[in-house]
Design a protein that fits this description.
By secondary structure, the protein is α+β, with helices and mostly antiparallel strands. The protein is 27% helix and 33% strand. The strands form 4 sheets. Strands 1, 2, 3, 6, 7, 8, 9, 10 and 11 form a 9-stranded antiparallel sheet that branches. The relative contact order is 0.13.
């Protein structure tokens, strides 16, 4: 018996020694010293709802509705409201639509509002209750739409690095942090900036007033975490028992912003796979020889699809979520009235060119520059433009490095985009 105990102790300490390097690379938040995985930080909202004139109209409308519900309903009354909803009625369709739009616009902002304690209805709890309500129908198509709507980022990526971490109270759970480069963004406009996870014992500086975020553009760095092992049970591994995600491989991933904890005015979160449709691969799809590996046909769009086919069918499903076929009223969607625009280069140093399409017949065009809090900084043009593609140079010499938005109004059409000033 003594020999067995000694062997167990030796094995335990050997395990700790083996895992110690990964444990020492902690990005732990100040509010949870035992959480040894990758976290990002944002700051508590100064006001709710987080409205800005420069938000897309439908996003603003979603936040106004969410604010109204949260001020006038408590958790019990919201559950009663959900229980009165049938399988896939107009109310469910509209909730999914606005859940998609708010997450697509800025999942970090949506998460931040979800943990505001000033409401009668705690938004994060209401979101959880809605997910449970949807899942009770046990309808694959509805669960798929929920997964798409809840995801903050859906992207085609190539993996550049993976780091294994020991987690849990006695470090028996194994997670991996994936660092990758975005090839194409299917959903999502904003993601957290990547962190240097090789810094030993690093702790987020909660005093930094501006957490780092970046546009979810092709070429941007993206980091997320997934679970490889839960105790002694494998969670997401390949047929050889190796971690699912491989370096230098391409994937299509569905990720959402998951809350961790709070410390003073700081909120900590991570990016994890979105899996409300019960997908065995946690909606992390390997790409082999140009084919998306989805043998279970998780989204009901077919198997053996090329990357282009998979994306096209996914975008068709997204279009039905944001433009639902309502039985009672058909409201115009911002996606039917949105302008096409982009700026180049982005990120930029000092100057960038904003390129935009003017509707048929020409129109007066107004371009407004605002900061990441929605504060109006300047109007760079308010003039008539002929139809077709136009461009204007923006000089940011008076601005400091950071995230900025430009909003283009042309007649009844409006759009907002993100640009990054990096000196």
């Amino acid at each position: 018996m003594k020999i067995l105990i000694k062997k167990s102790i030796i094995i335990f300490f050997i395990t700790i020694i083996i895992l110690l390097p990964s444990v020492s690379f902690s990005q732990k938040p100040r509010c949870d010293s035992l959480y040894m995985n990758l976290t990002f930080r944002t700051i508590r909202l100064k006001r709710v709802p987080p409205l800005s004139f420069y938000m897309p109209y439908e996003v603003m409308k979603g936040y106004i509705a969410l604010d109204s519900i949260s001020r006038n309903m408590d958790n019990n009354s919201f559950r009663d409201f959900l229980n009165r909803q049938t399988y896939y009625n107009d109310t469910i369709k509209n909730i999914l639509k606005y859940m998609y739009l708010l997450n697509d616009y800025n999942p970090i902002l949506f998460y931040t509002m979800g943990y505001d304690s000033n409401y009668k209805l705690w938004v994060a709890r209401a979101e959880y209750d809605f997910i449970v309500h949807i899942q009770q129908f046990k309808q694959v198509s509805l669960s798929n739409d929920l997964t798409i709507a809840e995801a903050g980022i859906i992207a085609h990526i190539i993996v550049t690095d993976t780091v294994r971490r020991a987690c849990g109270s006695i470090f028996t759970d194994i997670d991996e942090i994936v660092t990758c480069t975005i090839i194409d963004t299917i959903k999502g406009k904003v993601i957290p900036s990547c962190k240097d996870i090789s810094i030993p014992n690093s702790v987020d500086d909660y005093r930094d007033p501006v957490p780092n975020i970046q546009p979810a553009n092709p070429g941007s760095c993206l980091q997320f975490t997934y679970m490889v092992q839960n105790g002694n049970e494998p969670v997401l591994v390949d047929e050889n028992g190796e971690p699912w995600i491989k370096k230098n491989r391409e994937y299509i991933v569905f990720l959402y912003v998951a809350g961790n904890c709070r410390y003073q005015d700081s909120l900590y979160y991570d990016c994890s796979p979105a899996q409300w449709n019960g997908a065995k691969n946690y909606n992390l799809y390997p790409i082999e020889n140009g084919i998306v590996q989805d043998p279970d046909d998780n989204f009901g769009i077919g198997t053996g699809l090329t990357v282009a086919e998979f994306k096209a069918k996914l975008r068709e499903r997204i279009d039905k979520i944001i433009n639902p076929d309502l039985t009672s009223v058909n409201e115009p969607s911002i996606y039917n009235t949105q302008l096409q625009s982009y700026n180049y280069p982005n990120p930029f140093d000092n100057t960038t060119t904003i390129i935009f399409d003017v509707p048929k017949g020409g129109s007066n065009v107004k371009i407004i520059i605002s900061d990441y809090l929605g504060r109006r900084l300047s109007v760079i043009t308010d003039s008539y433009y002929n139809e077709g593609q136009q461009k204007i140079e923006f000089n940011a010499a008076s601005l400091s490095s950071g995230i900025y938005f430009y909003t283009i109004q042309a007649g009844s059409k409006i759009t907002s985009n993100i640009m990054v000033l990096a000196r």
